[in-house]
Amino acid sequence: MAGLGERQCVFCQIAQASTPTTLLYRDDSIVAFPDIDPSAFRHYLVIPRHHISTVKNLKQSTEDYELVKHMLNVGKNLLSRDAPSSQSYRFGFHVPPFNSVDHLHLHCLALPFVPRWREIKYVTLGPLPGFMEAQRCLARIKP
Ligand SMILES: [Zn+2]
Ligand SMILES: [Zn+2]
């Protein structure tokens, strides 16, 4: 059951298809839609339909592992359909406090970054890595 905060969550509303956002994919557990402020040639978000706040709230469990694996597979399929000849792809989550919306969302990027400086938001190494690649996330929550 959704609490008050979750009912106001913009991604929960998108997941319930109660906004004009075009859904690229939808099933019982997840939905996918284009990022409203794209950072790359193609930039999609895949979110769970039930509210999970951030990557920090994912547990080392079969349920969460299968969920993230499913999100990643759907993201990969959408990008290979819509951006088959991209130079490379990136899939991952912002780590708090670098996340924008407090509803777990997988960024799915078909590069190049547009404009180029946007890459800084998706850096995985260095002193302040704000972005966790999906594969690394999966390795952490693998049961
Ligand atoms: Zn939500
Ligand atoms: Zn984000």
Tell me what the structure shows.
The protein has 143 residues and is α+β, with helices and mostly antiparallel strands. The protein has one domain: HIT-like (HIT family, subunit A). 28% of the residues lie in helices and 23% in strands. Helix 3 packs antiparallel against helix 4. The longest helix has 21 residues. The chain is globular and about 35 Å long. The relative contact order is 0.19. The model has no long low-confidence stretch (mean pLDDT 92). Bound molecules: zinc ion (2 copies).
CATH architecture call? 2-Layer Sandwich
Q: What is the strand tally?
A: 6
Average pLDDT reading? 92
Contiguous low-pLDDT stretches (5 residues minimum) are none
Tally of separate helices = 4
| Gyration radius from CA atoms, angstroms | 14 Å
Bound molecules: zinc ion
Q: What is the name of the CATH class?
A: Alpha Beta
> Largest sheet, if any?
6 strands, antiparallel
Would you give the CATH topology? HIT family, subunit A
Total number of domains: 1
The CATH superfamily is known as HIT-like
Helix content: 25-40%
What is the succession of H and E elements?
HHEEEHEEEH
Give, in spatial order, the strands making up the sheet with the most strands.
Answer: 1-2-3-5-4-6
What percentage of amino acids are in beta strands? Answer: 15-25%
Shape: globular
From the helix content, strand content and strand pairing, which structural class follows? Answer: alpha+beta
Q: How far apart lie the N and C ends?
A: 26 Å
